[in-house]
Amino acid sequence: MTGAETSREIEALIRKTLRHDYHPELVKMYGQLSFADINHQLVVTAAWIKLYGPQPELLLLSGKLCVRQKLWGKAREYFSRCLAQGPNAEASLEYGRLLESLGEMDGARKVYQDGLLGLVPVFFHSWEKTGTGTHTGTFTIGAVDG
């Protein structure tokens, strides 16, 4: 069995499963498969968005596929919609890269900064739970909700 045949089998299994139930990890796996027809993948992800709503994983995947097809405006829209739902490091990175490639350095810098600041509460929440370090106080940057 060739790599292309294996990819087709994996794609078929993922599509069959996602036809009935939403699994974010399967969406991520689907995005890692290589296909010659990116437009087909965009049609599939659009159908999933229609079926399951604008899930962050679907919006991120759609944005990444649009970048591959050089659909800059659609990619920007998908990344923005994904980030509007909450912090997402991968979406921030991909959106920042897109903006950089378009020469929008200030916009890219803001997306990267917002992405990093969105991770701060997650990092410190994990840090306090594990008990690592010697700090026992509270750490706040800007207007972080907690």
Care to describe what's here?
- With 146 residues, this protein is mainly alpha-helical.
- The chain has one domain (3-130): Tetratricopeptide repeat domain (Serine Threonine Protein Phosphatase 5, Tetratricopeptide repeat, Alpha Horseshoe).
- The protein is 72% helix and 0% strand.
- It is globular, with a radius of gyration of 18 Å.
- The model is unreliable at 133-146 (pLDDT under 50).
Keywords:
globular, 146 residues, mainly alpha
CATH architectural grouping: Alpha Horseshoe
Radius of gyration: 18 Å
Structural class by secondary-structure content:
mainly alpha
Query: Which descriptor suits the 3D outline?
Result: globular
The tally of domains stands at 1
| The top level CATH class name | Mainly Alpha
Q: What fraction of the residues are assigned to beta strands by DSSP?
A: under 5%
Topology, please?
Layout: H1 3-18, H2 24-32, H3 38-52, H4 56-68, H5 72-84, H6 89-101, H7 105-130
Q: Would you kindly provide a brief summary of this structure?
A:
By secondary structure, the chain is an all-alpha fold. Helix content is 72%, strand content 0%.
